[in-house]
């Protein structure tokens, strides 16, 4: 009897990747409620306690805790997208990462395009002593969340490139309308002089239109939209990072009375509810719910 042909390395690699993906999805699925609800609630409490001077020095604004919590909350998005990230997508996201650093450094040094602002605490190691090294971890998932929610909610309207891109850009800017007021309130950064929108100048949002447009176009180029939409429709936890975002930053806005920002966070809750995967079963137990 002839010996069986040796298994190709590509086949082995593919099976290994599939098994790793399966295990990662199981971990996220089994801890879904903890990741999407418990972590952001604890994060909101500790950040507000840090801002109000209620935590001891080693715990207040602890950059390692902030980064760890952020990575945990990002995990459903990262794990959900992994099967769709090939070399082309990786290249586009690499360009977006470089762009993220570049425009933030330009913003800090020149006050353009966001207006004059500065980081008032260190969010981990700082690149050139000016911007957080983990900046892409903070920014790029916001764009991905906005884009994924957009194509899911728009349904057939997402077939139009103009409609899809414009709606996603609006969603990105809306995300910052939630994020920046809360971040200013807890002392992550500040604008000089403070602007009319809870300390945030309107120029900041013009800047986000610019940066958001570039980011959304790169994300749109990175993925095959039909394959991505199928993944978003079948992976029940892929938007849980957006749930975390709404709970964390929307909650902080409520605590500081930033009611317009809180209302925008509420609009994202409606968008998430529109997807049909967040119901009372998820709130009670964190068990997977059925998507559309």
Automatic annotation (TrEMBL):
Database matches in InterPro entries: BABR_hydratase, CruF, CruF-like
Keyword Transmembrane helix attributed: yes
Keyword annotations: Membrane, Transmembrane, Transmembrane helix
Residue ranges crossing the lipid bilayer per the database entry: 32-49, 55-73, 85-103, 133-154, 166-189, 205-223
Recorded superkingdom: Archaea
One Pfam family here: Caroten_synth
Protein's name according to its UniProt entry: Carotenoid biosynthesis protein
Presence of keyword ATP-binding: no
Species in which this protein is naturally found: Natronoglomus mannanivorans
């Amino acid at each position: 009897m002839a010996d069986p042909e040796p298994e190709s390395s590509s086949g082995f690699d593919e099976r290994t990747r599939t098994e790793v993906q399966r295990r990662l999805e199981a971990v996220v699925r089994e801890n879904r409620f903890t990741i999407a609800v418990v972590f952001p609630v604890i994060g909101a409490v500790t950040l507000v306690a840090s801002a109000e001077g209620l935590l001891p020095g080693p715990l207040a604004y602890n950059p390692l805790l902030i980064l760890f919590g952020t990575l945990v909350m990002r995990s459903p998005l990262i794990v959900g997208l992994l099967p769709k990230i090939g070399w082309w997508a990786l290249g586009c996201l690499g360009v977006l990462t470089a762009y993220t650093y570049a425009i933030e450094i330009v913003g800090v040094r020149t006050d353009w395009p966001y207006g004059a602002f500065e980081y008032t605490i260190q969010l981990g190691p700082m690149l050139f002593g000016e911007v957080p090294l983990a900046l892409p971890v903070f920014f790029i998932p916001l764009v991905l969340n906005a884009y994924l929610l957009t194509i899911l909610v728009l349904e057939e309207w997402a077939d139009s490139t103009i409609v899809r891109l414009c709606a996603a850009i609006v969603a990105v800017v809306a995300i910052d309308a939630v994020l920046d007021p809360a971040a200013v309130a807890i002392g992550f950064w500040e604008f000089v002089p403070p602007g009319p929108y809870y300390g945030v100048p309107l120029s900041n949002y013009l800047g986000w239109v610019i940066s958001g447009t570039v980011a959304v176009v790169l994300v749109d180029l990175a993925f095959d939209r039909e394959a991505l939409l199928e993944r978003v429709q079948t992976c029940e936890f892929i938007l849980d990072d957006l749930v975390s975002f709404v709970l964390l930053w929307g909650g902080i806005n409520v605590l500081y009375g930033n009611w317009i920002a809180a209302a925008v966070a509420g609009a994202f809750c409606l968008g998430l509810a529109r997807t049909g995967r967040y119901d009372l079963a998820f709130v009670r137990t964190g068990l997977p719910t059925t998507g559309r």
